[in-house]
Amino acid sequence: MTPIRLVVNGTEHLLEVEGPVSLLSLLRERLGLSGAKNACRQGECGSCTVLLDGEPVCSCLVMATDADGAEIVTVEGLAGPDGSLHPVQRALHDHGAVQCGYCTTGIVMSAVHLLERNPTPTAEEVKEALAGNLCRCTGYGAIVRALAAPERAADGEAP
Amino acid sequence: MTTRLDAPIAVRGGVGTSVPRPDGIPKLQGTFAYSGDLHHENMLWGATVRSPHPRARIVSIDIAPALALPGVQAVLLASDIPGNARFGQKEQDQPILADGEVNFWGEPIAVVAAETLPQARRAAAALVVAYEPLKPLTDMEEAARRGEAFRTLQVVNGDQSLRGEVAIEGYYEVGIQDQAMLGTESGLAVPDGEGGVDLHISTQWMHVDHRQIVDSLGLRPEQVRLHLAGIGGAFGAREDLTLQIHLCLLALHTGRPVKMVYDRAESFAGHVHRHPARMWYRHEADRQGNLVRVEARIILDGGAYEETSGAVIANAAYFSVGPYRCPSVEVDAVAVRTNNPPAGAMRGFGANQVCFAHEAQMDRLAAALGLDPIDLRLRNALGHGDRLPTSGQEITGSLPTAEVIRSAAALPLPDEGPSDDPRRLPGGVGLTTPPGAVRRGVGFAVGIKNIFFSEGFDDYAEARAVLTPAGLEVHTAAAEVGQGMVTVLAQIARSATGIENVEVVFDHTGQIGSAGSTSASRQTQMAGGACLEACRGLRAKALERGGGDRLDDAGVWSEGRLVASLEDLLAAGPLEHHTRFRHAPTEPPNATGQGNLHAGFCVAAHRAVVDVDPELGLVRVVRVDTAQDVGRALNPQSVLGQIEGGIMQGVGLAVMEELLVDRGVVRNASFTDYLIPTILDAPDVEAVIIEEPEPGGPFGAKGFAELPAISSTPAVVAAIRAATGRDLNRVPVRPQDIAGV
Amino acid sequence: MLTVRPHSLDEALDALAAHPAATLLAGGTDLMVQVNYQGRRPEVVVALRRVPELQQMDDGFIGAGVTWSRLTSAPWPGLAQAARTVGSPQIRAMGTLGGNLGTASPAGDGLPFLAAVEARLEVASRAGGTRSLPWDEFLIGPKRTSLRPGELILGVHLPGAMPEVQEFAKVGARNAMVISIASACLVRSPDGMVRIALGSVGPTPLRAPRAEAMISAEKRPSPAAVAEFGRLVAEEVRPIDDHRSTAAYRRHAAGVIARRLLERALA
Known about the structure:
The structure holds 3 protein chains of 3 kinds. By secondary structure, chain B is of the alpha+beta class.
């Protein structure tokens, strides 16, 4: 058993972890945070994306014992104090970018990371930032429309 | 049957508006409970033992090593199945757990339950199964020669002596596509302590699952209740049973709740895939381009068990000519049995394969005749009042083929050529392709699909509209798989009643009858039609009880005065209306595939623009534009979402998706090597929505959402042919096919 | 399972001295796939991402712990171009150059650059001290390295005089998140010397010495010479058939991207 300390959505957790269990398993099964999804466990789909020390990672590929000391933000950590939607979530909702929704929380986390660094991305910048998030339902059109900045439409790519 | 084209009542959130989906916020915030998120106190985890051989005799199974492991509570075999040991929607030919032999790679042999998932997986791995491998039958043509057929049909229509002045023959192949829905198979079975069980499940049709589960468990129908859990996509993969019976067996055997979740590799093994196809075609036309005769021979590989192969091959046969008039048709079609992984439903259901072939044929015919390929299609376009060239059925509903062709063709082509941005070039940020190496091509294709089941299947959907003090509930068993049924049903209910506060309630199988399958582009018209009927009936009852002429959230109004609140209405007792909605009847085919086999059709045209690097064979799909027949767009944003999503799947089949099966064994059961398109692979899409109301549809709406995945594939391949001059008779097109190495 | 999380190189080397058979964990993007899918259960894990010495990137030394994300803005264009093609943003945030070397997949995206510039690896252990060895003595076969028990990779040394012109290309079956079917890195010095290394077309990254010799002798290569270069590269690679592609296509693609990389280098 390995003791680890991690801060998840601002709350500190002290846990004992056995074996090479992933951060994804830890979040879902030990901490009850089922927003991050398991759709491949190979880092190929991005449904498990969380922010680890500010960077988007596939939590299925993070060994929980190696997350000791890390600050993790999951989708559950984005809600406003009144439970309100983060602007990224609002944009995706308004543009019809959610169908089955299985990819959605991963896309939200990748998008939050993108928009914090680049608040007005072109469509191509959105695509490159979300290249690690597979979606099977939407064909990505609504996702790009939700996230790309309309004022950048002239920058070579219409949103 | 009430008319469907009555004007909707003016109300906020009704049909025709892009109402946001009611489950959007929970999905965005991560609180939506998918079947894989379910949890129950005291629950066990299940795991499955699967065959590594495509065909083998099972010599012995030793479960003792599994039972001996810590935490293991059950190890079940075929002999533990109390009722019918086989399942299947049509034929119960498929073992729930293999008994004595296995017939496909991945076939389930045993299921185990343990306290934790790792324990269950270890137990599954610990089972000792001795096999005698046998030679698998894996070639579909060999299977056809041997007569290993689930279904053979012949479709013969018109004067068989007719011949054209020009004839084009072609051979086409379609590889195995997988639905690859992101939510893998998962569910939770909870025994009720009285011999029955509640199953919380992701599925496309709860009642057909229920029937098979009851049959296999040997229980009374009311002892098994299926509850719709949150579903992460389906696309056909959930039409046939996967873990449903396994879960119930384990739950009843252990007396504890059991949860099972497939990981991605197991998901590839555990569900049906699209039928691979081999097709031989001959198109004959006169010099003006009128189709005279089409002959087709179609083989679909159904894999080891029938699943829905009988219906898929029928679809392929009936749509083998496409949305065109043709006075002479002869089709031989067979779905064969092999030891390949079972094939079944996937968006398009047999129409995709033949659409790839018939659209390639039309292009080649156009070239041989010196005609524009779009003009050739327009000349032969099938419409209202024509007869389907295969079954001979008169098209009495809407079918705006000429209009979708013209509308798609009229969309402007991009005026800017390949850009410098590597993300918009073939090869992407791999920097393989300078702009000068790019050749652009444009391709066009049209597809037709039936709506609803066919060939005399008695299809219906139930709904119950219930008045509440706050508004209205619509109760249904329809599966919301992500497509937005939950949104649209509420919109229909609003427009049918005038009440804005509507909640869609997903009843379990004990509370309401079947809504039928979420598939076959049927649910908008079936669950939607049932909802409309139920709501109209409820409104009539409310107006009568309240003594007025208008209903809304405040209550019943008479000549502008509120005469009864909703609470007033309910004081006299519950107010609800239940309905079982049926579409117009269809009939089974005669011996040559003739008859009124279908109750509705839809059509779409796609135009693809691709940039190709011919030397490396890399493709970037720049645009796929479309004109889509939808009858009436109940939710425009949702319609566009289905179109873009379907196009992406069609593009996937065109250029990258293939399940590689080598002598019966799947070689790429992972997202590393079964490639579905990423956001960087997505084309731009412009969609023209054609609204020609469908008499059988709620407010004129028709089902449509398979078509975006059907004719998009041949449009993309046609564009690649135009860019490269290559024949390309197979999908998915691989780099080596284009490069010619 | 024991996880050791050293905060310095000394601590890391001590941990490996105590557990020479320990599993090294950097970004986890290869190891965790083995854990998740192949049932790999390490007994001891030495996690390296807190070791500052492995994070350095300067003066021609790239620490083994430098992530792909940082490498996308590295001052070496050949490596930066390769880094941009690795996996996805999520993979790039965790995956490291050292991991790429340690896994030693024939398709490793960073390996052709290192082979083309003739990087030297620096490895270290308590028992053996620090060793420096050329890339081709480290990468000895598909998924095989000459790393000894108790050793870890400190990083790579790039030669003092690096060719300024560096070009990379990777062929894959879709536009993102793809294992390469063929890849190549070409470098050219002002004196006309060209080196090219190719990935996914042999058991390790391959150089093409005959092609290199031919084209390096040409001060101002003619179009015919450029085409010949591509042809020779295609002859020198040793691809196989697998479920991702065919040997014939890989050979063809190697020749095409070799020629195009040279054209880019000459432009």
